[in-house]
Design goal:
CATH class of the largest domain: Alpha Beta
Shape: globular
CATH topology of the largest domain: Rossmann fold
Number of strands: 13
Number of helices: 16
CATH architecture of the largest domain: 3-Layer(aba) Sandwich
Largest sheet: 7 strands, parallel
CATH superfamily of the largest domain: Glycogen Phosphorylase B
Strand order of the largest sheet: 3-2-1-4-5-6-7
Strand content: 5-15%
Oligomer: single chain
Distance between the termini: 15 Å
């Protein structure tokens, strides 16, 4: 059954985040299948629609794209997109979509707005609660990125669990860009071992526990490298003390991040809640151990191939990282186990799972059976 499906391209107007990464990669996995006339598509044809301010980023999408006017940003998503939809199915992959669209499927990545309200502004929280409340009543199905998120979205009263389908993220994108190792000489690493972590002051990301851990004397011979656009002053303004052995990279490229991940002793990820958790799995695929808090979807995603530390104990984080630095054989063993764990998460698998949901809501046989029959 041939069917045209629109993908909501509002994410193309913003800088890359983990949520936007999911949209980019699922689009490109579907593009590869579309180019190969893959039978799993069941004759469906996907096209990404975007506003004028998403034109530049649309060049990185391998699916066909279409610029639709007028308006941009939220007004474009909430008014232009549903007005031009003309009955076609709309797939939104970044937490919200147009409230006027009933023939739609939306991916809600997590329930963080409810679980960690201090991480978001009040207007942001109110907007998400409003839009997601409407979408859960009107959409034909909802997607999310982990069984943990599915459970939490249901517990938060956003939507019943039976309407939510888990689509695990892929992680194979991290191997596509070559490592830009020049960053290793640009940063003041001084040949010392370092742990790598995301630079953000969002409360649920819990980077404060790492700052406290690296202020401890047993961490004097190690550095903490925080990657991302959030700088030192933002942490100071938020009331954190930043020890001297913390380095801020600023915004970096995918190649630079890969180089840091490959060189790091470990990727530290102390989030108190997480819908999926891409960075630990990215590091694991590159052979670098991940040390995580045993919270949210992190145990589901990382399994027994990662180490875990109490999100509220700076001493436990310091002890865990210091013990790794003193045990190269353990680092190597964790690197091997992590790579095996991460290899099971691919964007093709994610795209196939999306197609299976579409098969189910359209009343078509599951695509695995159809492919076998072909």
């Amino acid at each position: 059954m041939a069917q045209d499906i629109i993908i909501n391209g509002k994410f193309l107007r913003a800088s890359m985040t983990g949520v936007h990464r999911v949209a980019f990669e699922i689009c490109n996995a579907l593009a590869d299948m579309q180019a190969a006339d893959d039978p799993h598509l069941q004759g469906r044809h996907f096209e990404v629609w975007h506003s004028a301010d998403g034109r530049e980023a649309a060049r990185d999408i391998r699916l066909p794209t279409r610029e639709i006017g007028p308006l941009d940003s939220i007004p474009w998503e909430q008014m232009t997109l549903p007005m031009k939809q003309d009955g076609r199915l709309l797939l939104s992959l970044c937490n919200i979509g147009p409230m006027l669209s009933a023939n739609a499927v939306t991916m809600i990545h997590d329930a963080q707005v409810t679980l960690s309200p201090k991480s978001y502004s009040l207007p942001f929280r109110l907007w998400y609660h409003l839009v997601q409340g409407v979408l859960t009543r009107r959409n034909r199905a909802l997607l999310t990125v982990s069984d943990y998120s599915r459970e939490q979205i249901s517990k938060a009263g956003i939507a019943p669990a039976e309407r939510i389908h888990t689509i695990h993220n892929g992680v194979d994108h991290v191997t596509r860009k070559p490592a830009d190792r020049a960053i290793l000489s640009r940063l003041p690493l001084g040949g010392t071992p370092f742990a790598l972590a995301l630079s953000t002051t969002q409360e649920h990301k819990n980077i404060g526990v790492l700052l406290q851990a690296f202020a401890r004397p047993e961490m004097a011979a190690m550095k903490l490298v925080l990657f991302g656009s959030t700088g030192k002053q933002a942490f100071l303004d938020a009331g954190h003390t930043v020890p001297d052995n913390v380095i801020f990279t600023g915004r970096i490229s995918d190649g630079e991040l890969r180089a840091l991940m490959e060189e790091a002793l470990a990727l530290a990820f102390p989030s108190t809640t997480e819908g999926f958790g891409l960075p630990p799995l990215e590091a694991m695929l590159l052979g670098t151990p991940a040390v995580c808090a045993p919270c949210g979807a992190l145990p589901e995603v990382c399994g027994d191939a990662a180490l875990y530390a109490d999100p509220h104990s700076a001493k436990e984080w310091a002890d865990t990282l210091a013990s790794l630095a003193a045990d190269p054989a353990r680092v190597a063993a964790l690197g091997t186990a992590g790579k095996l764990q991460a290899q099971g998460f691919t964007w093709r698998n994610a795209a196939l799972q999306v197609l299976e949901v579409l098969d189910n809501i359209e009343g078509i046989r599951p695509h695995q059976q159809q492919a076998q029959a072909a």
